[in-house]
Amino acid sequence: MRKQMKDLKVKTSYFTENQPIKIWGESGPEWGGKLVATHHFYPGMDLTPFLHGFPDGLCPIPHWGYVFKGKMYGRYKDGTVEVYQEGDVFYMPPGHTLWTDKNAEEACEIIQFSEGGEFKEGEELVAETNK
């Protein structure tokens, strides 16, 4: 299975409707049950307030990816903060939150890989707990 990045589908979710985020991606059985998605996290994006429905208020879904442009920050349960910037490959284990600097001059653009079912369930929980 292959697809040009420019041909990925626009994804809408609670996050894209309530945060400065745009997501394009593909998932499903033809992708081995995985999600591949590009994310544009605009300056000032912060997922933290929306994660209160998860244990410890942190995302329980692991993510792997690559940062094409810009910078984003991840914080973990133990308080560790990591900076992910252009050229970095990353793994974010379960138990994290994510944000971008509100004063950044550009969006942070990444490609991310996750378990498709877990990602969908997570988005549904966020939508339900933030009504």
Q: Could you please describe the fold and organization of this structure?
A:
There is one protein chain. By secondary structure, this protein is mostly beta strands. The chain has a single domain, classed as Jelly Rolls. 15% of the residues lie in helices and 40% in strands. The chain is built from 2 helices and 9 strands, in the order βαββββββββα. It has helices spanning 14-18, 116-129; strands at 9-11, 21-27, 34-41, 63-69, 71-76, 81-85, 89-92, 96-99, 108-115. The strands form 2 sheets. A 6-stranded antiparallel sheet has the order 1-2-3-9-4-7. A 3-stranded antiparallel sheet has the order 6-5-8, with no helix packed on it. β5 and β6 (81-85) form a beta hairpin. The N and C termini lie far apart (37 Å). The model has no long low-confidence stretch (mean pLDDT 94).
Topology of helices and strands:
Blueprint: E1 9-11, H1 14-18, E2 21-27, E3 34-41, E4 63-69, E5 71-76, E6 81-85, E7 89-92, E8 96-99, E9 108-115, H2 116-129
Antiparallel strand pairs: 1-2, 2-3, 3-9, 4-7, 4-9, 5-6, 5-8
